[in-house]
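Example (one chain per record):
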Amino acid sequence: MREQTRVIDTPQKLDEVAQCLTAAPVIAIDTEFIRERTYYPLPCLLQVGTHSNQFALDVRTLSADALKSSINDVLFDSAKTKILHAGFQDLEVLELLFGDLPTPIFDTQIAEAFLSTQIQIGYGALVEKYLHITLPKASSLTDWTRRPLDLSQIRYALDDVKYLPKIYDAMKQKLLNLGRYSWVLPEFQDEIVRAKEHEDSASAYRHIKRISSLRPKELVVAKEVATWREERAQSLNKPRRSVLADEVVLSIAHLRRPTPDKIRKIRSTSHLNERDVEEIARIAETARKNPFHPEEDAPQQQKDPRGTQAVVDLLFSYVRVLSEKEQIAPAVLASKDDIINFIREDEDSRLFTGWRWEIAGRPMKNILTGRAGLYVHDGEVRLK
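Predicted structure:
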């Protein structure tokens, strides 16, 4: 089938795709979108594929009603596994297109972290590793909104789903052979849960660079100004930075008296109208009078238990050793927060439950209680 015929831009073609997908046990999914000039991603293509066919659905041309009436049922068929790679942003696009997320999913990037020490392997590297195929590199600046799509764009889009079913087959079998398939399934569910959680605007300030450098009063101001920015960006569907750059939010937070005149003197504020400037000044002035609540306002950063930095470092060393031995990415075994909570005997630590307890938590507990220790033999760190 020629690449051009795999671009689906009419309801009639869409019905044919739905028939093709109906017979498939798995469906590979990818999306192409842009969001340089918008707050929400702008969907451009929805690629779907089976072991033998791939299609690029032109969601810029097809109506939402056409999509939902033709392929909604087959995509949301819980008997079919939906395969993605690094699919978090794709899930965001799917929710925009269909109002919900299809399950169950299988994310090959997450799965690879249970089969090697790589935590965020790229799609091209994955295809080369499992299928020994080298994919052509595409420009990250491709404009997916332009029509008609050229042949290289179509091929690139179709390649993104073409190899996923075969990689899925190999990965699933390997995970089953190692007894890890049940380990990875909850991770896919967690990805769905995270994709459905829409962060509260009042928490947006936590992602500002250098936010932790602010003093308590300044932090309260930054929180309120960032909340205004987030809500304005959403209502205008514009990127946060085009409404107010991070540096501007921090500069406003530093002002002892945030008047409109002082805000106007900050670089990168010339695009703001008078009403916006006055509103920001009022929000900032009011925020400076509000009390600081450490538990609520301070950036959520896990602190090491006092005097245990050396212990954390020791257990991190063991995690790295275990990662190489078991061929599981270190971050999958245990994060720093997991280890700190484990030392505190906090139930929130994943090291106290399931497979992580068996292969990592139990020996780490023995290290903490002195029943086991690390030593070097022939240049390798081992557990005794």
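Caption: Residues 216-236 form the longest helix (21 residues).
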